[in-house]
Amino acid sequence: MLMTAQARSTAQDLITFIDASPSPWHAVASAEQRLQAQGFVRLEEGERWQLTAGGRYYAVRGGASLIAFVTGSRPLAETGYRIVGAHTDSPGLRVKPQPAIGGDGLLRLGVEVYGGPILASFTDRDLSLAGRVVLRTAAGPQTRLLRFEQPLLRLPNLAIHMNREVNEQGLKLNKQTELPLILGQLGAEEDAEARLRALLADAAQCEAADLLSWELAVYDVQQGCLWGADQEFIADSQLDNLASCHAAITALMATQQPAATCMAALFDHEEVGSESAAGAGGSFVSDVLARIGLQLGLDGEDSRRAMARSFFISADMAHAYNPNFPAAYEPEHKVQVNGGPVIKTNASQRYSTGAETAARFMGLCEQAGVPYQQYSHRSDLGCGSTIGPIVAARLGIASVDVGSPMWAMHSARESAGAHDHAYMIAALTAAFGS
């Protein structure tokens, strides 16, 4: 499939965004930097808000969730909101509070599994650490982003000579005993915890004694790239779901003077159920909507009118058909990479799509001049879920679940289509303008 200049440029910008965002906290920092460059003003939840028509704003909660919005030119009660939701977190490994493991001359790092990663895909890769640390300072605890850009960690595979059935049985890793990551070698008298704290303190530019706590994710330092005969595919970590975050923010930044109030809501903790103060199951989005309504003069009746006229698009990646594994797919729903945005439907409401909201999104795609596809999971396989049903239930608004098709979802290295990303941005831009 011949790459267009627009698709290539958009795909490269996505890769730049992902590679700058090795943790959910970095993803929000990357989004914030882009928003500020386009004139968006940060609002603090603990301060009084002053909003103006056509204003461009954003708020951050918990460091890894962000909601950005543009106030519309028409009365909110007549237009409602146009909301695109995505999530900043990805499955992987997270560092424990006391992770240093010494012994056998090695320093290893204890980790927990976050969400549902394909653990085998993390073996024999160049891994490192990124996230945030909290420091003791004279003014009180201070949070600081931290990232090691060089390879720091490794999860070595067991040689096939000691695991003869690995190609037939697959690689199986015990989450407690076989996931600690090798960080370095220890001297005979060297203390494992002291070595780790010194490493973190040096990166955070503080004294080791001032390190209070941390939230650190393990990430693959290999940068993203385009691949394929015509460079029509994207390979990178965290395509699920930073690709949707990038699409939502890019579409919102391109939206000028919309009639309806438009919003991009990026949530943390989707991969572990969304039930947190900063997750889609928390109050963040409803709090922001309530404050917008108050600022724009809506009473209780008009607030409910606005919600009834609103539309929510849950943007999360979709399962593309893999011809090497045809039995894994519903035969009549073989979603193709670079075939356009995917409308995801599930009768048990694992996705929030209904007939009317599916038709509405089809219309947006047609308006944007992009193709679309429909997906349903095999009936004899468990279906994943998204923030779509959660947000739709809490807000009571019409909702659809969509996503760009991808391969190897939840792998340390995922793949998607370069054309699809441009298609999704166009469709979401049309949604904000509707």
Which key phrases capture this entry?
434 residues, nine-stranded mixed beta sheet, single chain, 28% helix, Aminopeptidase, Aminopeptidase i, Domain 2
Low-confidence stretches: none
CATH class (first level) name of the largest domain: Alpha Beta
Structural category = alpha/beta
Assembly context of the chains: single chain
Largest sheet: 9 strands, mixed
CATH H-level homologous superfamily name of the largest domain: Zn peptidases
Architecture of the largest domain in CATH? 3-Layer(aba) Sandwich
Shape designation? globular
Question: What's this entry about, in short?
Answer:
By secondary structure, the protein is α/β, with parallel strands linked by helices. 28% of the residues lie in helices and 26% in strands.
Q: Can you put this structure into words, describing what you see?
A:
The structure is a single chain. The chain has 434 residues and is of the alpha/beta class. The chain folds into two domains: 5-90 and 237-432, Aminopeptidase (3-Layer(aba) Sandwich); 92-220, Aminopeptidase i, Domain 2 (Roll). Helices cover 28% and strands 26% of the residues. The protein is built from eleven helices and 20 strands. The protein has a nine-stranded mixed β-sheet with strand order 1-2-3-13-4-14-18-16-17, with helices on both faces. A five-stranded mixed β-sheet has the order 11-12-20-19-15. Strand 2 and strand 3 form a beta hairpin. Helix 9 packs across helix 11. The chain starts with a helix and ends with a helix.
